[in-house]
TrEMBL record:
InterPro entries linked: RNaseH_sf (IPR036397)
Gene Ontology molecular functions: nucleic acid binding
Organism: Aphanomyces astaci
Name used for this protein in its record: Transposase Tc1-like domain-containing protein
Amino acid sequence: MDNQVVRTRRELSSDEKVTVIQHLHPFLRKDKLQRGAYKHVAEQPNLDPRTVGYIWRTFRDRSTTATKKRGKVGLKRAYTAEYVQQLVQAVPVDKRSTFRDLAAATGLSPANLNRHLKKGTFERRSTRIKSLLTDANKEERVAFCLVPGETQPRRSWKSKRFILKVMFLGAVARPRIDGDRSVVFNGKIGMWRFVRLASHNSGNRSAGTMATKLVNVDTVVYRDFVINKVVPAIKASFPSATNRVLLQHDNATPHGGITDAVLESVSTDGWTFKMRKQPRPECLDLGFFTSIQSLQYKKMSRTVDDVVRNTMEAFDELTYDKLESVFLTFQVVMRLVLEHSGDNHFALPHLKKAALRRAGLLMSNVSCPVSLLL
């Protein structure tokens, strides 16, 4: 008998049942099976004649061999697609930008939400800044999730060039943690915005109303902020046994106004300040900016005051463990730079710092082979 059924599991598959039906067809006489057909067919695939009979009767009555158990057996899903859609719709749009935020708002796990995203329970969507008067506009993407059928919120602006950009100066250091993982210093020196109050009235606001205006950051402005804001904040909050502080920043043009000679004027009260310009990578670029922007983007900003308030709140909400992870990433990148002889053609490794921190196994520093330093 060709195409014999070989049983490898408790129940026959749909194809195996079709093979049994095909073996029974030669025994049909006037739409009835001959006596002994079940027993004869059951001998070859090692089936029970009653099983063969059940397969034949099911096919005769339903014209199919598909099982009716599908969807009725197995582990029941705790959350249906409809229930997940209701949970997502109840969450404000500004709290759907990441799986972690959506998980915290709905009570579901990020993995569960990711599975429903792949199934199509909800979709990834972006809003686009559209022209208020014309069809020409530039787009700015703000990612969030939408349940199918839910309309996108409207966001419009007359022109992209009217969207204001606010500059900030942030100063951070590596957090200090004792042996019991108690925070001695959270790593945050301060965050300052480059803004000023408007000194004149305008036709766009009533008389006497003061408005926040932006400041163009040049060498003079940057030097003033470092000398009069950053340095006093370091003296007030930074824990140091030797009071020797090395200020590091990148090679941006306004940063050229800060030199060791300039810092000598503030190296008082036992403090010594030195300046170092470092090429990329920077500690701030490696994670701090991304972390604080992810917090700031969750809040809608329509004015300069909104941007300032949301950014300062995001800086306050930033946790010390995020800064600690940034400095560990910085050490890993510096080791990779040494391994590749100064090149940047390498992938950023994933250290699983959050998992190691939860397990109490996070390293204090990243090891570096002596051979790279020779």
